[in-house]
Write a structure and sequence with these properties.
The chain is mainly α. 62% of the residues lie in helices and 2% in strands.
Length: 248
């Protein structure tokens, strides 16, 4: 045992006195072996390595590749805030526009409301509802035409804007043309309202956001009122005066 201890001190003194040089040339960098290296070289035949502890260290070193400290996580870039949906701009509408729009919805939901209260399906009221919806389609086409004509308007007076304004008018004309079949005429008005809303929101997005919000609300109310009228035709019996031009 004393022999190995003397050998260890001799080796460590030699390594400290004559450092091992790494590399050649102008750098001449030196590197001194540590005390741990000397112990491993001189006492490895005498002392057995603690294999269980070393295997545990190896396992811990491997798990470092799979588990990362929270401090090393990269900061995620801050995304810009999403713009609010179109319907959220409804409170920004001018009060006169809100009041006039609400008053303009009365002819849509008044006929089915009266039929529900009377528990009868009245064709004359359904016809007036369809006629108002067709007139409303013509009004929407006039809005697009008038919006594109002034100078400096974001909507140019090109073929796309002016021709698209005639699409609601065509559906309005078709609805009156087939008014003898009232259910088909109501469906035609519903299709025209949907196409007009899709065009104004996605194909020609030049209207103010508050006006788009009003258009969404108005279209939804008109759509629901027409659907209720079609359902009441099958639920309640048909009574009351006939609508104008109805064939017996």
């Amino acid at each position: 045992m004393l022999h190995f201890i003397q050998k260890f001190f001799q080796a460590s003194s030699k390594m400290l006195k004559y450092p091992f040089r790494v590399g050649l040339g102008a750098s001449r960098r030196t590197q001194t072996l540590s005390l741990k290296t000397c112990l491993q070289q001189n006492f490895s035949p005498v002392f057995l390595r603690p294999w269980p502890f070393s295997s545990f260290l190896v396992c811990m070193s491997k798990t470092q590749y799979y588990h990362t400290s929270p401090c090393t996580f990269k900061k995620q870039p801050v995304l810009p805030a999403r713009p609010p949906k179109t319907i959220m701009y409804l409170p920004d509408s001018p009060k006169p526009a809100i009041y006039v729009s609400l008053a303009g919805l009365i002819p849509f939901f008044a006929p089915p409301l009266i039929m529900v209260m009377a528990e009868t399906y009245i064709p004359a009221l359904a016809f007036t509802q369809m006629a108002y919806g067709a007139s409303f389609l013509s009004f929407l086409g006039g809005i697009r035409w008038g919006f594109a004509l002034p100078e400096g308007s974001p909507a140019k007076s090109d073929f796309l804007n002016l021709a698209s304004s005639t699409a609601p008018v065509v559906f309005s004309w078709l609805a009156f043309l087939i008014s003898e079949r009232l259910s088909e005429a109501i469906v035609t008005v519903i299709i025209g309202l949907g196409i007009a809303l899709h065009t104004e929101l996605f194909l020609l997005p030049h209207y103010p956001n508050w006006f788009k919000a009003l258009r969404i609300v108005g279209t939804l109310v008109a759509f629901l009122s027409f659907v209720i009228t079609l359902l009441l035709k099958d639920i309640y019996p048909e009574k009351g005066p006939k609508r104008p031009g109805q064939v017996e």
